[in-house]
Amino acid sequence: MSLLSNHIEAIIFCAEKPIGTLEIKNCLTEMFEAEVPEEHIQEAIDQLTTKYNDDGFSFGLNRLSGGYIFLTKPAYQASLSIFLKQASKKRLSASALETLAIVAYKQPIAKTQLEQIRGVNCDYSIQKLLEKEIIEIKGKSDAPGRPILYGTNTKFLDYFGLNSLSELPQPKDFASLDNEIGGISE
Length: 186
What we know:
The chain is α+β, with helices and mostly antiparallel strands. It has 2 domains: 3-76, Winged helix-like DNA-binding domain superfamily/Winged helix DNA-binding domain (Arc Repressor Mutant, subunit A, Orthogonal Bundle), CATH 1.10.10; 94-185, Orthogonal Bundle (Arc Repressor Mutant, subunit A), CATH 1.10.10.10. The chain is built from 9 helices and 5 strands, in the order H-H-H-E-E-H-H-E-H-H-E-E-H-H. A hairpin with a 7-residue loop joins strand 4 and strand 5 (148-152). It starts with a helix and ends with a helix.
C-alpha cells in the first residue's frame, strides 16, 4: 500500500459523507504542494476497495452519490441494530436534561421542589434518571411527609466528563453565553 493510498484512506475515513475524487485531489494537491494525477487517485481507491472487500474487514469502501465512503458490511447489520438501539436508550430527553440540571445545581432536592422550578410533573424524568443511574436517592427531608431527596452521583460525573461538581458551569458563565448569543442574533 502506497503513501498516497494511506492519505486517501485517511481522508475518506474522516469524511462525514461520500467524498468525490475531485475533493480528494484538491486536498492532496494542497498537502503535497504538487498536482496529483486523477488516475493515481483512482488506482489507490481501487486498491483500497480490493483491500476492504476481504472478509477480514467488517466494513468496506463504497461508491455512493458520486463519492466514496466507508460503510459497514450488511453481514453486521444485526449487531449494529442492537448497538444503535441500546445507544438511543442512553440518550436523555430534553425534559430529563432539564430535570437533571436542576438536581445537579440544587441537590439534595425533593421532587416537589423540582416540580415548582420546572412547573410540570417530574415523575417520568426522575424515573428515567434513576433507571440510568445518573441520579440517586440521597435520603429524606425533615419537611412534613419526609419527601425523598435526589442528587447526582459518580455516573453523572462520568456521563458529562467531569471530575467534580465544582466543574459545573456557574451562573456567571451562562450570563456571558447569553451576551454572546444575544450579540449574534441582533
